[in-house]
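Researcher: We're teaching a course module on how sequence relates to structure. For the next exercise, students receive a sequence and then see the predicted structure as tokens, so they can try to spot secondary structure elements on their own. Here is the exercise chain.
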Amino acid sequence: MNRVLRELARGSVEGGAVASHPGWLLAHWRRRFGEEGTRQRLAWNDTKPPLTLQPARWDLDALRSRLQAAGFGVREAPLGTGLHVVASPASPPPAQLPGFAEGGFIVQDAAHALVCRYAAISPGTLVYDACSAPGGKVVALERLGARVVASDARPDRIGRLVGTARRAGVAIRVVVADLQSAPFGDASMGAVFVDVPCTATGTMARHPDARWRVSERAIARAAERQRGLLDAAARLVRPGGLLVYATCSLEPEENSDIVNDFVTRHPEFVRDPARGAVPAQLVTPQGDFQSLPQRDGIDGAYAARLTRAG
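Model: And here is the predicted structure for the students to work with:
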């Protein structure tokens, strides 16, 4: 904490205010987004993000009605993804909202709900959701018709994963396993969804301290691990099957660079974006998913959809 305060005290001045981000990160984003894009990005990070709810056991109309009947203001989340609960000083935590105990909703930002739509996994497909805690993707994928095997390498996170799935009423199988030693045979899965650990630069509005923990070296370390996880996921995909790689990072070193390298080394996999699965503004020229907080008003996230030759 003292180190963070010293960093803030030494921060550069941006528009008359002490910068709330480290200088190396500002320079990094200026190269990527330009001056104005970076300014907008910083403004987003320094604004309290909205609470976004996705329907689970209840449909969207029922969720809206129950919240309004209890006196909560709601509005549509961007791009047709759930509801925002309008903030007020007295807003309770999600567990105290109407419908939480009944499994009426899960808390999930629009970006992560859209990544699951972008995956466009055919109903009935057996999908291995690696790195699946805390469970929001499991609920979204199951509601879209997939049959989910969920896992996480950390036993302490499995309880939350199981609790989320049970509360939302989804039927899944759960294993405790590291993706690189997953207890499944090669080419055994119709789809593998791997939301890899990353530097999470797309969610810094929700985790303000993360901007002071991440470093250029951390991005390089994350990328090295991500390459290994994507390779491990690939061996589980059957011919004709689907591999979805996702992050909540904004950094190309963790996103398109990883996928470009992967398809070069694994020519049996090709990018295969599903036409019309998400709004066109979220699809890059290469066909990948990319949400930008300063442009889209949602968390930053990335995904690539790859199919294995049959």
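Model: If you want an answer key for the exercise: The CA atoms of residues 290 and 302 lie 5 Å apart. The mean pLDDT is 91.
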